[in-house]
Specification:
283 residues; alpha+beta; Aminopeptidase; five-stranded antiparallel beta sheet
Length: 283
């Protein structure tokens, strides 16, 4: 996504197969913002569309993202507004799927005050009761990078992310305009996993979680990280945990709709998703 996006090309008249198009200024179309006018200071945010490219999740689909102008000076308050319109960040790039023939990507959030763990999630909490949790500022360390690289090699081979560098690590996980923390899960000093988490005015956002590809799978550490984030948001007096995008047909994403109740941003508004809704989406 990032490699094909440079709004300056369009503004100075540079055209080409990789040049993005200025799609709209918020307020945007009903699917993305339902007519809400988002103002950033005294200005409206420009939204650009990337060129179509092969979808990395669904075969035979073309993916298009709409992207907030990266020249805008963002802050946590502005990001809270756009994440409430179904957007999300990858590094410093704030985007939302806007595919021409597909609506499979559904932004999800958990209203943490209403969350009720199921039996499997309660077992997961007990299984991981020996973990020591430490909240650290987002930063690069060799220890983090080794764990990140081993996780990608085992969990996402051939997916384009399995040959990371320290630079790509930072570009994917960090941003200067939002408070981001690395939540460490350790046993006896050993780093089992890290939950990269943004702190917003009314919620936490689960950016990415990486963990030991062997012991972390046995522990169900990805699910445990979400359970921890839900409790942490509740402790901080926040309303939501934002889980990013969910695709029912994508096996690796199916865990996201297991945290109930869960809300999806559908047709321009947040609405609670029932079992029937998620089952229908998977068909």
């Amino acid at each position: 996504m990032d490699s094909c996006f440079d709004p300056l090309k369009r503004s100075v008249g540079l055209e080409g197969p990789q040049a993005p198009l200025l799609l709209f200024v918020l307020p945007v179309c009903a699917r993305v913002a339902r007519g809400i006018c988002l103002r950033h200071g005294m200005k409206q945010l420009l939204i650009f569309a990337t060129q179509p490219q092969r979808c990395s999740y669904l075969r035979n689909e073309l993916a298009v993202n709409v992207v907030v102008d990266p020249r805008a000076s963002l802050n946590p308050s502005t990001y809270q507004q756009v994440i409430d319109l179904g957007f999300r960040r990858s590094g410093a790039t704030v985007y939302a799927p806007h595919c021409p023939n597909c609506r499979a990507c559904v932004p999800l959030r958990v209203p943490v005050g209403d969350f009720q763990p199921n039996r499997s999630q309660r077992r997961n909490r007990r299984r991981n009761g020996d973990l020591e949790t430490v909240i650290q500022p987002a930063r690069y360390t060799d220890e983090y990078f080794r764990l990140y690289a081993s996780y990608l090699a085992a969990r996402h081979p051939g997916g384009g992310m399995d040959d990371p560098t320290p630079v790509s690590f930072e570009e994917f996980l960090f941003t200067e305009w939002c408070e981001t923390v690395f939540v460490e899960f350790r046993t006896g000093g050993y780093l089992e996993g890290v939950a990269v988490t943004d702190i917003l005015p009314d919620g936490l956002s689960a950016v990415y979680t990486f963990y030991d590809p062997h012991d972390g799978v046995r522990r169900g550490l990805g699910n445990y990280a979400v359970l921890w984030q839900i409790q942490e948001a509740l402790t901080r007096g926040l309303s939501y945990l934002y889980l990013g995008y969910w695709i029912a047909a994508c096996e690796k994403m199916r865990y996201k709709n297991q945290f109930r109740p869960v809300e999806g941003y559908v047709e321009g508004q947040w609405q609670q998703l029932s079992d029937a809704d998620t089952a229908a989406a998977a068909e």
